[in-house]
Amino acid sequence: MGYRMSSVPGAAIGMGREAWAVAAAMARYGRHFAAPVRPATSRPTWTTEPVVLVHGLGHNDGAWSTLGARLGAAGFFDFTTVTYGFDDEVPRIAVRIAHQVETITALRPVERVHLIGHSLGGVAIRYWHDVLGGDVRADAVVTMGAPHLGTPWTRLPFLSAPARDLAVGSSVAETLDRRGVGHDRWTTIGGTFDLVVPASRAHLPGAEAVNVASGHAGLLTSGAAAGHVCMALLHAEDQRAIAAERCLLER
């Protein structure tokens, strides 16, 4: 389908932003993610649930630098990153997520965590959530440009095994499709200029679906996407506080 004439300038701007985002991602590749530091203050502070971050294929924890700063401004400071290599398939990444989450809940006085995943990382979170029983540990889950419904690029013959896991009809896709786990705590974010994972392929039934004017890599630096991530996590924190207050009143 071609662009209408009125959409051409917007598409050009979107592609330009995506090129900038790709260049920025390459520049940050050699740097590791540095979690924001809670500012020193004498005022009472609130404590949020930990946040687990899972990057996309071909990236590393440096992918989260921009979003991490935004989350820090929203009051989130407890981060754990899950990293993996080019050859790690979705089920193996999901096991890593499970290990990290169980470590967190064993060492901290929390029962649930928030999770954010970009691209392949979002599908790995879904596998952990739907197949490995992670739904009992997940509070808010946000995926960004995750090909939950597949992506046309997985038909290319030279792709690695992790990328082939994302194809419609793959063993991973079939396993996920057989599960009846709900995604009402999920927010799925798609990019309207995403040529890797079209926005229509980035959403799940039952999840809060959001599209922003961004390309695939640009989702990691998009102010609009970051705003939706913060809102999802803050809403979950608000619901947790309401539930705790209700529990106290019922005693």
Helix content: 25-40%
At CATH level 3, the topology is Rossmann fold
Number of helices: 7
Number of domains: 1
Blueprint (SSEs and pairs):
Blueprint: H1 8-28, E1 51-54, H2 65-73, E2 79-82, H3 90-107, E3 113-118, H4 120-130, E4 138-144, H5 161-164, H6 171-178, E5 186-191, E6 208-212, H7 223-250
Helix pairs in contact: 3-4
Supply database-style keywords.
251 residues, alpha/beta, Rossmann fold, six-stranded parallel beta sheet, 39% helix, disordered N terminus
Walkthrough of the structure:
With 251 residues, the chain is of the alpha/beta class. The protein has helices at residues 8-28, 65-73, 90-107, 120-130, 161-164, 171-178, 223-250; strands at residues 51-54, 79-82, 113-118, 138-144, 186-191, 208-212.
Entry summary:
39% of the residues lie in helices and 13% in strands.
